[in-house]
Design goal:
157 residues, single chain, Lipocalin, nine-stranded antiparallel beta sheet
């Protein structure tokens, strides 16, 4: 898919599907990063199976980009409560809902997974502190794409 075709197909929809937007972006020819702004973000923190905290934010932001490695892409999470981080993932081959593993997560994050369908993008991972009893599971749920802009390298740092 050509870059102009990707823009015309995705930039004029009022509330496009996260699944369709991600699939279309990953299968077009441009290597420019894509900034995704979402209408809502819910972050949940669990410890030992118990909900510790639920935070609702009116907006959430991610950067999606292809990597030089064939078949791989990267998401930069800009809304994490402690620090922004990136992870890589294998590009989906199927057109339907997809789940996969987060690769190359920075420490102390690990065992990450992601899921995307027509309604949401969900990221889930663990934080391992020195005391195993304090281990946290964190889940981000992004819904309602509002903004899709190609960005320059400085904004995707």
């Amino acid at each position: 898919m050509e870059h102009s075709e990707f823009l015309s197909k995705n930039w004029r929809k009022p509330n496009p599907s996260p699944l369709q937007t991600i699939n279309d972006f990953l299968h077009q020819n441009s290597h420019a990063p894509l900034h995704l702004g979402f209408a809502s973000l819910e972050i949940q923190n669990h410890q030992n199976g118990q909900l510790l905290q639920r935070v609702h934010r009116p907006q959430g932001h991610l950067i999606l980009q292809k990597t030089p490695q064939e078949g791989m892409a990267q998401i930069t999470v800009l809304d994490y409560m402690v620090f922004p981080f990136s992870f890589q993932f294998a590009m989906p081959r199927a057109q339907g809902p997809h789940e996969g593993h987060m690769l190359q997560l920075p420490r102390p994050l690990h065992q990450g997974s992601w899921y995307v369908d027509h309604d949401k993008l969900q990221l889930s991972f663990y934080i391992d502190p020195p005391d195993p009893f304090l281990r946290l599971q964190v889940t981000h749920v992004y819904q309602g794409i509002l903004v899709r802009n190609h960005c320059c390298a400085p904004c995707c740092g």
